[in-house]
Amino acid sequence: MFSKLSYKSQRIVIIVSFLIVPLTLLATFSFLPVANMFWYSFTDWNGFSEKEFLGLENYKTVFTDPEYFRVFTVSLYYFFGTFVQMALALYFATILSFKVRYKNFFKGAIFFPYLLNGVAIGFMFLLFFRPDGGLDTVMQFLGLGDFTLYWLGNPDVINISLAGTSVWRYMGFNFIIFLGAISSISGEIYEAAEIDGANRFQQFLYIIMPSIRIIISLNLILAISGALSAFEIPYIMTGGSNGSATFVIQTVDTAFKYGKIGLASAMAVILLFIVIIVTVLQRRFFGEED
């Protein structure tokens, strides 16, 4: 029967045959759970009982209840940390793209934290930030002992400490992407710029920045999305205590600690839309020509 089909029909049958299994798996384990999440967000489901439709009540709770709305404030620390992370990564990538002594050592040192396990980093920085730990010891050595704080115990600085840890860990990823993009720029362009009298800063401003604009755009999307969904490091280091619960930590606790699956689903939907909005705005600001 198959051999009697036309060539075009045979191609369609073959393509559909190869796609039906992966598409079925994709729909079952990706699209269907997302659709269920949207439905749960309008109910009071706790994971066991019957679902009662609540309309937009869960969404109203997220934006009006201080306990849940506070996570947006916490996310701002990671959001602003993203720009510090990007700036440092771009700075080091630019410096190390030129002729610098021991550049390979510095490349490895900057990228190495990204290779470490998140759990190991969490425990390492727990020791670093503890009273009389690594940070306090360094500050006392520099004569700044009077400025030591309870880095993970003071609600005013705990999120700065956690955001700083995230910057240290993930900067290496942005760095290596920037470095690869800068390395792809032809050396002849730099030579022509030097002949015209351009210094390093002018080369960065008029050669590097325009050439890697798309890469900056991509890194910015990834970094901001990661900041909004920060989970691993704050969960390991503090468990979300002392005012350090991020959006994802609060969502997980709401679902599995307090059994409010409907409310947690609403929070997940909100996070999804925030990421989509950030991506659309970024594309708007950077222009469609990219």
Structural features, described:
It is a single chain. The chain has 290 residues and is mainly alpha-helical. The chain is built from 13 helices and no strands. The two termini are 49 Å apart. The model has no long low-confidence stretch (mean pLDDT 87).
TL;DR of this structure?
By secondary structure, the chain is mainly alpha-helical. It has helices at 7-40, 57-64, 66-97, 103-115, 118-129, 134-141, 158-183, 187-195, 200-211, 213-228, 232-237, 247-257, 261-286.
Which secondary structure elements does this structure contain, and how are they paired or packed?
Layout: H1 7-40, H2 57-64, H3 66-97, H4 103-115, H5 118-129, H6 134-141, H7 158-183, H8 187-195, H9 200-211, H10 213-228, H11 232-237, H12 247-257, H13 261-286
Helix pairs in contact: 1-13, 2-3, 2-13, 3-7, 3-10, 4-7, 7-10, 10-13, 12-13
- What structural class should be given to the helix and strand makeup? mainly alpha
Shape: flat
Taking the sheet with the most strands, its summary is:
none
Uncertain segments are none
Going by CATH, the homologous superfamily of the largest domain would be MetI-like
Order of helices and strands: HHHHHHHHHHHHH
Helix percent reads: over 70%
Global Rg: 25 Å
DSSP summary: helix tally: 13
Number of domains: 2
The number of strands is: 0
At CATH level 2, the architecture of the largest domain is Orthogonal Bundle
Mean pLDDT: 87
* Text of the CATH class of the largest domain: Mainly Alpha
Distance between the termini: 49 Å
- CATH fold name of the largest domain, please? MetI-like fold
Oligomer: single chain
Beta-strand content estimate: under 5%
